[in-house]
Amino acid sequence: MFADWLTTLSFVFGGCCSNAITLEQLTSQLPRAGSLITFCQFLIISIQGLRRHVIWTTYGPRFKPRRIPLTPYLIQVVLFYFVSLLNNAAFAYRIPMAVHIIFRSGGLVIGMILGWIFARQTYTTAQVASVSIVTAGVILTTFSASVSSTNSLSDHESTLRIYLTGIGILTLALVLSGFLGLVQDYTYSTYGRPKTNQKSSVQDAPPATWQESMFYLHFLSLPMFVTVRKDLISQFQALGNGPVASYTVPVPPSISATIGPSLAIPPPSAVPLYPKSSSFLSFTNIATSSTSTFIDSERLFLRLQLPAAIFPILLNTITQLLCAAGVHRLTTQVSSLTVTLILVVRKAVSLILSVVFGWGRKGTQSPESVDVAMMWTGAALVMIGTVGYSLSTNTKNNARKQKAE
Fold it and tell me: Which stretches are transmembrane (predicted)?
């Protein structure tokens, strides 16, 4: 049990916080790469899930039986696709990471409004008061970055217009996320809540509901990226035309011994000059080559020249996978109240790492232009309101159970 909890919390805090850091670094380098980042995240989660949801038969690969029919997933897929795309696209409109983290916590407000309108849900006074506190916190956080220091009124108006456009995009994502929550609640109430994956000796036994949902929401969304194919192409081109980073990879000794003697060593006049402190000798001129080979004594090295943003994108997609798995695992181990409280703490940690330590920024990059006092006040209100809403909801559910008994 301890090992299982340690794994889950490592995925939630390590995966989600690392994902926020790499996302901030990526969007600072490529602010308009939201579609590319979203596509890479969806792709790696889909590839990772294939091994659990596909089996090989005599007639080729086929999907395992599902716990939930395919039709209920279709609406979820469309909503989930646009929510993910909009959240990452908002960074192109100068939305600081701190505002991004806190603003997305406003989904509690949207969820209550939609639940009251469409699901005919009723709420206690404590729940309404808590949501009001969250709303005030989100508004304060939004205003904390809405005013920037510019030299002219026209520049200020242009910057404010861009910022408000980003806030509008995040607001639309929150509304769609609220509808997604309603659809998922209906689906899970009909076909069963996510449960832990029980081991089975049957090869084609379906995975746990949460694993199935995570896989199909990402996998079925991949064809929809055709709608942003032009953006993806331009972002791939911008990635290739950006700064280049070099990575030196040692070649295993067994491979070095095999291909080493076959390398043709050029004459001294053809060898590029390197500092005397360097222990590597180039066999090729790498000015126009993406890879080159080096030799040091009898060991062989490979130098790769790749776009500098490739490594952050790879880290972001891997941490996104760990974060999604951790949150879904958490929902199977504890109550929804505990899940909410743990995620509030996780967001607070991400906020501290971003604003206080600046882990998502480069060393030469200036801190985010936000009113720190206003931002932290808004963050505190959002967290207090979220905790208050969770506690009041838990009290309401317990009273309902006692009355039913």
Answer: 30-50, 70-91, 97-119, 131-150, 162-183, 339-360, 372-391
